[in-house]
Amino acid sequence: MVTDENSRKDIEQEQRRLLEILDSAKDLIALVDKECRLLYLNDAGRKMLEIGQDETLDEIRFDRFYDDEAAAEVTHCELPEADRAGHADSETRLRSKSGREIAVSQVIAAHRDGRGDVTHYSVIARDLREHKKLLEHYLLSDKVFTFTAEAIMITDSRNRIVSVNQAFSRMTGYTLEDAKGRDPVFLSAGNLDNNFYAEMWQSIDTTGHWEGELWDRRKDGTFYPKWLSINAVTEAGSDEVTHYIGIFSDITLRKQQEDHIRHLAFHDPLTGLPNRSLFQDRLRHALAESRRDMLPVALMLLDLDHFKYVNDTLGHYMGDRLLKEISLRLMRSVRESDTVARLGGDEFVIILNCVHDLRDVVHVVDKITSDLARPIRINSHQFRVAASLGIAMYPDDATTIDDLMRCADTAMYHAKGRGRANYQFFTPRMNEAAHERVMIEEHLRRGLDQHEFELFYQPKISLDPYRLVGCEALLRWNHPDWGMVLPTRFIPVAEESGLILPLGEWVIGEACRQARKWLEDGLCMQIAVNLSGRQFRDSNLVLKIRQALEGGDGISRWIELEITESTLIEGASHAAQTLHDLHLLSLPLAVDDFGTGYSSLSYLKTFAIDTLKIDKSFVDGIDNDPNDATIIRAVISLAHQLGIKVVAEGVEDAGQLQFLQDQRCDMIQGYYFSEPLPADEFEVYAQREFPAAFSSSYN
Ligand SMILES: Nc1nc2c(ncn2[C@@H]2O[C@H](COP(=O)(O)O[C@H]3[C@@H](O)[C@H](n4cnc5c(=O)[nH]c(N)nc54)O[C@@H]3COP(=O)(O)O)[C@@H](O)[C@H]2O)c(=O)[nH]1
Asked: Which residue spans traverse the membrane (predicted)?
């Protein structure tokens, strides 16, 4: 009895153990009878089919956990197959109590009694959802690996290549067969030393990661830069590295773009020459080199003469093409080690390194000026370019970049002042002149506030009939300490500083006031007012003149505007409109300094010009330079044919007067008749010499 009891207990214990094992399984395990009724279902099965632990399995048919199609498959195919072969394997779908579908792989095994008859079936079903997820994840990763645009290589723990993707082969030219088993160092361009790789591996060993730029060589021998990132892969839960994944991309294009952006930052986009930033950097290097080698550096500032004229008359496209050609010529004139830079507009700067002798500098300047002077043909236009150059020497003239630039600028300013198309080496005296300019500017500002200016008037005499027809208003500055200052000393400074605008406005207002007074006194004649280039370009000029004229009725025809030939031509782009507006105000127009500026005479027919003033330099030459006499003859004839009157200025003697009279010059201005006079003295002069002038009426 005891033995039976013991063996029963043993069996029960054994059964419990078996059930524990079945319940610990992750797969569904069920036992069904021949009618498909559930006899047993382990814990995983209950969970999968949503049958509670307390729920009894009595009378539950297992086939209700399939949909109709799957149930039919089980009943008609798999159970008979199990009967026949012992088991049937399939992939099917189970359906939980709540209707959730579960993809499973299933094995149905038939169990038999001692006689060999099937008594029941066991069903083992494995949930495939996790497996499918893993599979999908793997397939996706594989696709990413295969088709990604970045090259990927996987190496083993000894850094031998085990796998590469398509992008790797595309980028390097090596197939997986070429690369397999090799150390990736075979890809290298060979330009890096051992230290580089030592640091790289130290980073990977300590942080598990490295990334950086390096150069590789393709299978075809060409080189390219790449950005590589390497990650070490470790076994889950361990520090042991199993693989290294290297991902890289060809950064040739990016580097080209970076180079392009860097180039743009340091070069002038039009000419490709270094810009101001790069120039300053080069000059800094040149000065450092000069200190080391004890050889001077020459800094040349070059400004094209009358370049604005090209832009204004032919447009910026032509101007740009001309600048490009000039840049090429400048570069050709210097050594490769020298620098030609464009600072903007028509301003260039040249650094000559290691100057052994000042004669070398002069030689380069000669080369530059003669090269620039050669005609430049662009489309149907032919240009002859001249430039003004200012030269400063390091270390003699200045020792800092700013001071050196200032010296070169001062020298260039002097070159311009000397009639352009020449060069000037900086001298300390130029600095004195520069200081004087600054001082005059300060005094000019104060002089304007303190009303220190006055207009003098120089008569213009008509020869046939002989009478006073007008005068030129000439500005004088009564400085409290310096006495009477002539315009040649302060007009250029006023022009440069912009003070000519308020000063010129005062001149126009004062000339209008004087014209009104003289007209009221019966002195009817034109007063000519000089307009500087800066004034002429002032967009408010017409408005200012209109305001000045408004004080008196109909005086505009008594105010003549004198504009120099160069001002007219240099401002050609807007000159037509300005002159048209002035013409509408009925203001007569005279061209001053005629014959000194341009060879083009076409503007004579373009603009409504009333008078030409023959420059004093031609009048000076009447007696001793036959060319001057010829030019005067030609100018008078040309003007008369165009219906324009002629004034000769600077007439000092009777011989000049006679010649001009013979050529039928319309008017004379000069010391021969009178120097410029203050208004009251002018009245006395007019009363004395031309009393008839007062008898006329202007209405
Ligand atoms: N924008 C302005 N410019 C002005 C104004 N006032 C004068 N100026 C310009 O300054 C330059 C010098 O002028 P100035 O010292 O007054 O000299 C004028 C005459 O005095 C001088 N002249 C006239 N006749 C003779 C002569 O027989 N001999 C001789 N040596 N000099 C003579 O010529 C100057 C007049 O020149 P121009 O104007 O070209 O007719 C001068 O360029 C003035 O234009 C002003 O208000 N605004």
From this structure: none
